[in-house]
Amino acid sequence: MFKLSRSPHTRRLVVRAYVGMILFIPCLLVPPVASGATVTVRSGNGSAGGRDSAVTFLLGPATGPVGHVFTASDFSAAQTGPAAFVVTPNPLWIPSLAADESAKWIGTNPNAGCCSGNTALYAVSFQITSAFTSATLELFFAVDDGIGDGYGLVTGNSGIYLNGSPACRGGFTGASQQQSVSCDVSSLLRGGTNWLYIEDGNAEGAAGLLFSATITTADFSGAGLLLNVPGTAMPWLYSTASGGLNSKYQFGLADGSNPVIVSSANGINFSAGSTLTVTYLNGSVSVGPEIALPYTDASGFPGDTTTSTGTFAPGHYMNPVGYISELVGVFTDNSGSIIGTPFALGDGPTPLTIPVGATQLQLGVDDDKYSDNVGSWVIQVISSSVNPNLPSINSGGVVSSADATAPVSPGSIASVYGTFPVSSSSQTTVTPWPTTLSGLSMQFSGISVPLLYASPLLVNVQVPWELNGQTQALATATVANQTSAPQIVNLAAFAPGIFVMNAQGQGAILDSSYLLVDSSNPAIAGSTYIQIYCTGLGPVTNQPATGASAPISPLAITTTTPTLTVGGMPATVLFSGLAPTAVGLYQVNAQVPTGVTPGSAVPVVLKIGGTVSNTVKIAVQSTPSSSNPEPTATSLSPALLPAGSSAATLTISGTGFLSNSSVTFNGIPHAVSFQNAFQLSITLTAPDLAAAGIYPVIVANPTPGGGSSQPLNFTVTPALNPQPMITSLSPSSAPVGSGPLTLTINGAGFLSISSVTFNGISHAISFQNGSQLTITLTASDLAVAETDPVVVSNPSPGGGNSQPATFTVTAPIPISLTGNWTGAWLSIPSGAYGLLSANFTQNNSAPTTYIQGLPAYSVTGTITLNSSPCFGVEPVSGLIAGNAFAFTAAFAVGQQVAFDGLLNTTGTAVSSGAYVVQSGLCAGDYGIFTATKN
Question: Which of 204, 723, 754, 774 has the CB geometry, 3.0–4.6 Å to 800, for a possible disulfide?
Answer without folding.
Answer: 723
